Input
Amino acid sequence: MKRFRSALGAMAAAMLVAACGGSNTESAMENPSTSHGTLVENPPLRIASLDATTFGTQLASTGPSGQQLLQLTGAPTCGVDFYYIKFYTLGGAGEVTMSSGALMVPTGAAPACSGPRPIVLYAHGTQTNKALNLADITNTSNTEGALIAAMFAAQGYIVVAPNYAGYDISTLGYHPFLNAVQQSGEMIDALSAARTALPKTFAASTTDSGKLFLTGYSEGGHVAMATQRALQAAGATVTAAAPMSGPYALEALVDAVFYGQVNVGSTVFSPLLTTSYQKAYGNIYTATTDIYTTTYATGIDTLLPSVTPIDSIIASGKLPQLALFDNVTPVVTIPGDPTTSAVLTAALAVPSDPNNPNTPLFAAGFGEPSLITNNYRVSYALDAAANPDGALPTPKAGVPLAAVAPTQTFRKAAYVNDMRNGNWAPTEPTLLCGGDQDPTVFFSVNTQVMQAFWSALPAGLVTVLDVGGTPAGPFAAIQTGFQTSEAQLFAFYQTAAGGGLSPAAAEQQIIAGYHTNVAPFCSLAARSFFSQF
Amino acid sequence: MKMKLTLRALPVVLTTLTAAAAICHTTLAHADEVPSNTVRVGMYVIFYHVKASDISGPYTPAGVNVDLKNTQTAYFGYIRRLNSYLDLELAFGVPPNTKTIGKGPATLGSVPYNGQTIATAKWLAPSALIEYKFFSESAALRPYIGVGVNYTSFYDRQVTGAGAAGTGGPTRLSLTSSVGPVGTVGLKYQFGTRWSVNASYNISQVDTNLKTDTAGVIRTSRVHFGPQALVIAAGYSF
Output
């Protein structure tokens, strides 16, 4: 028995020696720091690696939209590695939060696909889907991720695009929507994290050339411009910028909406905006019923973004589809000023001007139950009347300045985040692209206001492109392409395959999709613009 | 070629071995002179019959699975004679460095996957078995059957470059240890009192929970390895 025990002991010892003999591969290094701009895991996860041929094939297989996108962007020159970066940033009130985003790295043998490459820092448009992840190219609903990958990364640009705080893994609990300081800070944090990650990626031979291009669409247009302002203030290099269809002159845009020019998507933008500013400034309301009717007030401060599809949210009665304002016109009473009271009451009526082609669009934003109370609308309008914006309702002479001293807290927040503020102007070449018929982010109230605001800058520093305008100049082909595409779409909606709509109904569809349809054409213009530098 | 031997096939194998042993039956030394301890040295030839759930987790396409490459390694055994018919065997091998092979899509995106060696791990897999020997102590050729328990742990777990390309970066691989039944059928031929040779075929149940961690992204699979091993060994009794 003794020998038996010895043999067992020897075997156990052998097992222990063997068990201690190995080490295991490690995952990415996790940085314990939570200071903003810190990359959490390095190297980051590569979600997918697609060579140029595979990426082109995958885009083409997604149907007409993918094929049209390929037509516009051209066949991929480079493969693209899609990295999922996680980084720390600050929320609207300075809260530390983790955020995430995409780092898209061009790959392949073509000269444009490796070595020193420029970076495009991209800001995405408004999304209601909290699970948004631009890096996840495997998700077919990630159309904006596919657009920027095909437009920029597959043509040799390194792309950095945050998902924004409040989305994906961020635990912030709200999105700092159109908060210029927060969103520009997050863009810079994402850029810092991506630059940390880049040397550790599989395609480490693709390096940062030092050229930095800024762009973004819609909300992201505002973010791109705010980022340009912040980087300039920090003395950092910006090679060129191309904000697209953004609500730059935010105070003017919100004034326009409260005056009755209700934009498409306003019932989604409103809760995003009021929650963002309430979290950042704490003075927008004491209760959501200060702004919202009792039908919608409960829970509206946590409604968006959401993993529940927006159509389901609307269908469940938590948000109206169109009725931003009450169709019963509020009566404004300013003590001792019956004239202004009457003018303002008239200004708040449901739009009915038969000579304005936008009247049906604006009027559609009125109904019952409405999202915003008449009392709140009046309080905003009183401030707008007392401290008018330089752009509207009646344009003032000279450059269209923002209101000097708004007092209503929400209007003041819009003023603070209006890009006419900050005592700045672009010092690098800047392209402002949009479409003049945009029913969501009005071209005249935003792009053209900024154009006028910067009219004294050296010629050629700021270029404005209206893809809906008469084709001319270096972007004529893009203008023609957009207008041809819209015409084809208008004809398609009237075919059986397109729904067999009447011309009027087809026109409504065109209007509904206009803001989205401009995006790829302005992105192409941005790429063309960047290629000059 | 993989051997398709399962536990259900054991009676058939056993009958065959018994018949063969009867033909070769010869007389050996008296039971009183039989030593109590035997050590064996030989070779394991291991065939895996992997059944795994598709790897699940974020950013993982459908149908991503794994397989293992068959392998061989040195076998060591200690056999304690309990009586004329029963032995206790403690068996282990030099932990083989097994290769995990990608099974499923030809590529993940544009990264080759199917058939690629994506990970390696060493198996420490000792077994303890009680074996029943047929025929009398004096028979030179004695078939036997046995049942027991196997313990398997995995170490030196490495995800290869091809594996990391598939998972999306440097990846930590963990495999839970396994305790499961093992069965054996064998045939021992005794040369005199001290020396013997034997051949056996073992079937084990080795299951593990596979988990990978790539930059905080966790993916999992339940893997049934189904190892079957042919053992050829020489023994010395004392």
